[in-house]
Amino acid sequence: MEAGASTGTRTTRFMMEGVGARVIRGPEWKWGKQDGGEGHVGTVRNFESPEEVVVVWDNGTAANYRCSGAFDLRILDSAPTGVKHDGTMCDTCRQQPIFGIRWKCAECGNYDLCSICYHGDKHHLRHRFFRIATPGSERVLLEPRRKSKKIGIRGIFPGARVVRGVDWQWEDQDGGNGRRGKVNEIQDWSAASPRSAAYVIWDNGAKNLYRVGFEGMADLKVVSDAKGQTVYRDHLPLLGEQGPGRTGPHGLQIGDQVNVDLELEIVQSLQHGHGGWTDGMFECLGTTGTVVGIDEDHDIVVSYPSGNRWTFNPAVLTKVQIPVPVTSSSSDNQTFAVGDLVQICHDIEKIKLLQRGHGEWAEAMAPTLGKIGRVQQIYHDGDLKVEVCSTSWTYNPQAVTKVASSDGSVPGNSSGERLSALLKKLFETHVSGDVNEELVKTAANGDATKCEECLKRPEADVNGVFAGHTALQAASQNGHLEVIKILLRFSADVEMEDKDGDRAVHHAAFGDEPGVMALLAGAGADLNARNKRRQTALHIAVNKGHAGVVRTLLELGCHPSLQAVPAVLKYLGGESLRGIATVQVTGCSTQPPKLKRVYASLATCGSLRGDSAAASQGLAQSPSRHCSDNTKLMMTIRFLSRKLFHFCRI
């Protein structure tokens, strides 16, 4: 592992959201119409240095731009880079997890949006939101969308006319250099890289999927651009700008001082796969370094007084705790350290004033007033990141009072009695309150023991609702079988609906949980129930590409024909089903992976064998040669196959 520039480039890639991000011009743009004009889109190709990034615009222009000190670019969409927020779900479109930028409502207790829904004006426009660029990064509080300016974006979007681009490597699929085609849809090149490709219909009749952002590649160049959605320009993050609290594993962030305190043999072992070990790294032992970067693998880049930079496994490093003296609201000098227990100011008007310029105030912070929390992080300006009421907020140090140190000592009380009382109070703040909230949260987290304890409390309601969902719905979507068994034992209602009309079976389909589906079926759940969008669990499973759930539902005897099939075809036929059919007919190698899995499942469920296209044609012509004795299944597969064959002929 070499110290220096190569590490800096890897660091920059992580810090700046990664190669493949889709960008528009930023606030300090001074390059005329290289990009095609305000709102035109390009792709991050690579980083030349921590200060310089190469962008290929959709119009084909490629150039270097500033991403440090001065910011030429804004990040429109980081989903193509693969950045995702595990454990989250968009509360409008149900994308799970959220890819790209996460937008969290600051006014509501637990409400998230993906970028498409945020800029699409979902949820209340008067509510303020936090922008969370990457998992673990600091929340940035934004103005309400109602007060903000929207601009249109243009580039490679449905309806655009395109020719082959700088990274073209698909021979003459387009009919030859200079031949044109029309973008039909923006799709995922892979499941890990959403919105990173365009499905193009060439003038010669060929159709295929091409890279627009995947790994920074640009297979296409636009000759007549098209409109995308409108976006809140000033809410988009600047490419390269560092938030005040971006953190890596183990709570490390840029600027932290760290030591290597482990034995040499252990360090060398832990370094395998994390930059390795060289003799030059002996300077790190016994010397304090400064974190200067977090690379795309979440390894930590540390700078030393010699000027060298080395990359470490975060498990090797120990953060040096530097006490930060601050003045409390009672005018006494306080020194905070990570792990200290603190009490939040209970005066709402006072804390609103104190929070100005120190993380700001949000109405969602109101439940924390007067509560006990634990210091998670100390920023360089003295502000504190405090875990309180099962969430984390940034506080002005004058808005909190230290009640216990991280070593267990209590100011002004050596007996430890006050600490015991405070710890009990801290525990109660996490588990007291609405029993329905606690039940739903423990079910969602898969904590079977706590779930059962909640249900044994006299005020507990097994069908109680929190954040619009019951415990059974939350556990079903996350696949927690033991929790579901406990809930069913306590007579949970399997037919309860959420605000969208979704029941537990719908949530299991969303979460790709075939085992849960079987368990719910055994409890008498209606597998053919429809939500308010007239979708059954089978519709959702097919649309999401969850082949295991599709197979399980068919085996459990749900009704996929009659009125249900047209709805499936509506969701698949206009987009992906047409795509899979044309791909098979034209002989292209690219096939939407989720449909390939689902169609394979549909094909094999009825003892079909072989290529899905051949199976569909054979089944359409002579279903009796391929079908099992399951008549219902046979009819379903035959119907879908004929529809697919029909699309092939179009």
TrEMBL record:
ANK repeats: 467-499, 500-532, 533-565
EC number: 2.3.2.27
MIB/HERC2 domain residues: 11-79, 148-226
Subcellular location: Cytoplasm
Reaction(s) this enzyme catalyzes, per UniProt: S-ubiquitinyl-[E2 ubiquitin-conjugating enzyme]-L-cysteine + [acceptor protein]-L-lysine = [E2 ubiquitin-conjugating enzyme]-L-cysteine + N(6)-ubiquitinyl-[acceptor protein]-L-lysine
A single GO molecular function term of this UniProt record: zinc ion binding
Enzyme class (EC, first level): transferase
Principal subcellular localisation of the protein: cytoplasm
Residues annotated as domain ZZ-type: 85-137
Record keywords: ANK repeat, Coiled coil, Cytoplasm, Metal-binding, Repeat, Transferase, Ubl conjugation pathway, Zinc, Zinc-finger
A Gene Ontology biological process term: endocytosis
Pathway of action: Protein modification; protein ubiquitination
GO cellular component: cytoplasm
PANTHER family xrefs: E3 UBIQUITIN-PROTEIN LIGASE MIB1, E3 UBIQUITIN-PROTEIN LIGASE MIB2
Protein name: RING-type E3 ubiquitin transferase
Species, as recorded: Cyphomyrmex costatus
Phylogenetic lineage: Eukaryota, Metazoa, Ecdysozoa, Arthropoda, Hexapoda
